[in-house]
Amino acid sequence: MDKTRTTNLLLLVIVVPLVFYLLKILSFIFIPLVFSMFIALLFLPLMRWLGKRGVPKFISIFIVILIILLGLGVTAELIHLSSKQITSSDSTFFAQAEEKIRGLKTSIESDFGIQLGKNGSVMAQIAETKNIGSVFGFIGSFLSMSLTTAFFTVLWLAESINVQKLMNATILKQRHTSVKTFLKIENDLITFIKVKFLVSLGTGIFTGLACVYFDVSFPIFWGLFAFVINFVQMIGSFISVISLSIFAFVELDPTSTLFFFILSITLVQVIFGSILEPIFMGKSFSINIIAVLVMLMFWGFIWGIPGMIMSIPITVFLKIILEQFPNTKIIASLLSGKS
After folding, report:
1. What tens digit of pLDDT does each residue of 203-214 get?
2. In 3-state terms, what secondary structure has residue 173?
3. What distance in Å separates the CA atoms of residue 48 and residue 183, rounded to the nearest whole number?
4. 122 belongs to a structural domain
5. Domain that holds residue 139
């Protein structure tokens, strides 16, 4: 018995790192696959509602695709408006930014006795050819991931890939248990995605309004940036506040106006992220903050930014699965912070 247990432990030690290594190497497949699963789960209740009313499945899928395309269209229009706003602005801001960045660079070089870079325009150095090439590379990768995600989403919705049957065949082995577990996963993840979307939307809107009120340039861009980056749990709010504060420091004079602007965008993050989001999520959905940080760093290491965005849904998925087995319930309790 002891030999069998030792053998199983050794196999586990070998298999687990191998699995995560494959997840990292084959990220171009697994990221769209997992992301599309969450998108499909969000639309499954609508698919069931249409199915109960006799709507054929291919028409239901077509309706869902139209809704997704509408959302992408709105996002593209916001990006277009923000880019148009940036390109149509006069050169005053860029000249002011150049002056402040150059002054900061000179101050650091004189205080610390180091050379930060060659002479010339700092803004021009930011827009070097190699940086532009990396941007185009990122856009190409993003489009490829988006198309793969769309393909997998259609497969999930058409039930060519069935999560419940997959769990029944591989992990849970019991139909009743697998159905019950799948429904809990679906309900919890839909709750998370809906709340996170609404909280991020509110954060983006009020961040943009704060920029308008304090006369900070490019409010549409900053509102969109706050909306997107807020999907990265915990870290996103810090990145949003710090980035916008640095931008405002360049544009605004360091007076009480700058202080109240930073205070206002910080309050937006606190109200939506620290007060409203936990209320809407509910106590049953709580996850230990240490588990959040560990999963954030772990999936960020495995899959980068997409991993950081999906870290909490993946954690919820794993927690619900672990709750189904007596031997792993204690791990699920540690993840949820319950004793």
Report:
1. 999 999 999 999
2. coil
3. 13
4. yes
5. 1-160
pTM (2 d.p.): 0.78
Asked if residue 274 is part of any domain, the answer here is no
Distance of alpha carbon 258 from alpha carbon 248, whole angstroms? 7
Q: Tell me the pLDDT tens digit for each residue of 215-241.
A: 888 898 999 999 999 988 778 888 899
Tokens of 327: 């031997």
By CB atoms closer than 10 A (0-12, 13-18, 19+), residue 244 is buried
Amino acid, single-letter form, for residue 82: S
- Chain-centre distance of CA 126, in angstroms? 26
Look up residue 158 and give its two tokens.
């058409």
Q: What distance in Å separates the CA atoms of residue 244 and residue 268, rounded to the nearest whole number? A: 13
Judge whether 111 lies within some domain.
Answer: yes
**Average pLDDT in the chain:** 79
Give me the number of domains the chain comprises: 1
**How confident is the model over 1-14, as a mean pLDDT?**
67
Residue 284 falls within a domain, yes or no?
Answer: no
How many other β-carbons are positioned within 10 Å of the β-carbon of residue 212? Answer: 12
Number of separate helices (H) and strands (E) present in the chain: 14, 0
Q: Which of 337, 245, 332, 302 shows the shortest CA–CA distance to 20?
A: 302
CA–CA distance, 325 with 280 (Å, rounded to integer)? 28
Supply 303's token pair.
């899959």
Whole-number Å distance between alpha carbons of 138 and 289: 31
Q: Give the tens place of pLDDT for each residue, 147-165.
A: 888 888 888 888 766 666 7
Sequence-distant (6+) residues with CB within 8 A of 122 are 98, 101, 102, 105
